[in-house]
């Protein structure tokens, strides 16, 4: 019996594990903070209460328009992406 390698969508490096959609505009967001080959760092916000149940992730533009409050429960949005300082 061999152990083998995990391939395809089950592999840990697959983008499906770190990609979510904004609940307001539907834009694809990368939870690692920076897309490959990109120079910009984009912040992803999530509701601590609704992220697990509803997948409530928001891009920075929509979080600003919502005044950093969740439209579902009213709690404050928290940044999900890791803060990278150089």
Provide the fold topology.
Layout: E1 19-21, E2 28-30, E3 44-46, H1 51-54, E4 57-59, H2 60-65, E5 78-79
Antiparallel strand pairs: 1-2, 3-4, 3-5
Short overview:
The protein has 86 residues and is an alpha+beta fold. The chain has helices spanning 51-54, 60-65, and strands spanning 19-21, 28-30, 44-46, 57-59, 78-79.
Using only C-alpha atoms, the radius of gyration works out to 15 Å
Query: What is the H/E order?
Result: EEEHEHE
Q: Taking all residues together, what is the mean pLDDT? A: 81
The major beta sheet can be summarized as: 3 strands, antiparallel
Helix proportion = 10-25%
Could you tell me the strand content as a percent range? 15-25%
CATH class: Alpha Beta
**Can you tell me the residue ranges where pLDDT is under 50 for at least 5 consecutive residues?**
none
CATH topology: Herpes Virus-1
Structural class: alpha+beta
Overall shape: globular
Main sheet strand line-up: 4-3-5
Helical segment tally?
Answer: 2
Q: What's the total number of strands? A: 5
C-alpha termini separation: 46 Å
The figure for the number of domains is 1
CATH architecture: 2-Layer Sandwich
Give a verbal description of the structure:
This protein has a single domain, classed as 2-Layer Sandwich (Herpes Virus-1), CATH 3.30.40. A hairpin with a 6-residue loop joins strand 1 and strand 2 (28-30). The chain has two helices and five strands, in the order βββαβαβ. It has helices spanning 51-54, 60-65, and strands spanning 19-21, 28-30, 44-46, 57-59, 78-79. By secondary structure, the chain is of the alpha+beta class. The mean pLDDT is 81. It has a three-stranded antiparallel beta sheet with strand order 4-3-5. A two-stranded antiparallel ribbon has the order 1-2. The protein is globular, with a radius of gyration of 15 Å.
């Amino acid at each position: 019996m061999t152990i083998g390698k995990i391939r395809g969508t089950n592999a840990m490096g697959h983008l499906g594990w770190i990609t979510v959609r904004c609940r307001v505009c539907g834009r694809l967001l990368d939870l690692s903070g920076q897309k490959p080959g990109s120079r910009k760092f984009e912040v992803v916000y999530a509701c601590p209460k609704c992220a697990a149940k509803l997948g409530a992730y928001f891009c920075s533009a929509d979080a600003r328009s919502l005044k950093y409050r969740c439209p579902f429960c009213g709690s404050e949005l928290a940044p999900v992406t890791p803060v990278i300082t150089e």
